[in-house]
């Protein structure tokens, strides 16, 4: 994994993020750029509201509604909504902006708006920014598939969202494996070549996947 980033002043970093957003419009592979913006916001929380405001501005009256550049902004807004909650005033402003059905009925932008509204109702904050794989599925408004290896049973593939906790996945696996009546306790573990540790119940599985990336 990359080492910790070094930052300058908040003002300078805000300017850099603004330049990144401008670049996003024409970027052929926007995923690394999106992850960089998200990482800066995670490291420098005061910039979260700034980026939300910039994205609202960029998606309010785009020169080409539904074009590649416009959708890249909606996709980053989707990733932001699954990672950070803005402050209450910005959240109210954002919810008003997400009423795109009247402006662009039955459009892809309206579908992103609906997805973002649902995400904002569930997002509590992340320990890690979305992995590259998670960003790709969020850009398509889809779920990720997580493979869990179970002792004495085949590996299980579980669909998860950015908001799925370890407890929810453990509960689903217990049900799938017919162990609901078992007196044993069940938990998820994450394992690398050097260590193995239990995953806390409230941990988001998406954060675990990012750590492994």
Automatic annotation (TrEMBL):
- Superkingdom classification of source: Eukaryota
Q: Which Pfam families match?
A: MyTH4 (PF00784), RA_2 (PF21989)
Q: Which residues form the FERM domain?
A: 144-213
Q: Which GO terms describe its cellular component?
A: cytoskeleton
| Matches recorded under InterPro entries | Actin_motor_Myosin, FERM_domain, MyTH4_dom, MyTH4_dom_sf
The residues covered by the MyTH4 domain are 1-139
PANTHER family on file: AGAP003327-PA, PLECKSTRIN HOMOLOGY DOMAIN-CONTAINING FAMILY H MEMBER 3
UniProt-recorded name of the protein? PKHH3 protein
Gene giving rise to this polypeptide: Plekhh3
